[in-house]
Amino acid sequence: MKSLKDQILTRCVHFTGIQHDACEAGIDYKTVRDASAKGPYRWPCFSDSGATTVCPKASFMTDEQAAAEEKSMIEKSDAVIAALGRGEHPPGVIACGAHDLHPFDCGGTEEGCIHCKGEKTEHHDPDNCALCKGFDEEPPL
Questions:
Q1: 74, 104, 112, 132: least CB-packed within 10 angstroms?
Q2: Are 118 and 131 in contact (CB under 8 A)?
Q3: Quick check: is 73 in a domain?
Q4: How many domains is the chain partitioned into structurally?
Q5: Beta bridge partners of 21
Q6: What band does 88 get if pLDDT is binned at 50, 70 and 90?
């Protein structure tokens, strides 16, 4: 498995995730995906993907930039873990409104968070939900 720094180094700085239509540079992902080989698409958004397509705006971090990004990510995750350990609301984490302490941004609505309530809906099954299963017991309310 690649280190965090190596993952950062090989990902284009404009990449937002293929669940989106376009990257931050405005490139439509469908226009650069490489479907030339069997299996999943390959993307020029990753310098190590082997994609035969080229993105005109692909840009990758320098070693120094990647090291700084890695350090920032680790510091942020350490701050969240430390806050949770103290029973405090983690910095930069959005509470869902269902309770005061929530360890992830659940995208909850005014009615609250389906993960906190453990409800089964059309889009959520608590028996097969990685977030719900992550709690040793019922999620805190």
A1: 74
A2: no
A3: no
A4: 2
A5: none
A6: confident
Residue 124's domain comprises 94-141
Letter for the amino acid at 87? G
The token pair at 89 is 């609301």
- pTM score, two decimals? 0.61
| CA–CA distance, 12 with 59 (Å, rounded to integer) | 5
Could you write out the three-class secondary structure of 47-95?
CCCCCCCCCCCCCCCCHHHHHHHHHHHHHHHHHHHHHHHCCCCCCCCCC
Contacts of 119 (CB under 8 A, 6+ apart): 126
Judge whether 55 lies within some domain.
yes
What is the distance between the alpha carbons of residues 20 and 17, in angstroms, rounded to a whole number?
Answer: 6
Residue 13 · residue 45 · CB < 8 Å:
no
Residue 18 lies in a domain: yes
Q: Is residue 79 part of a domain?
A: no
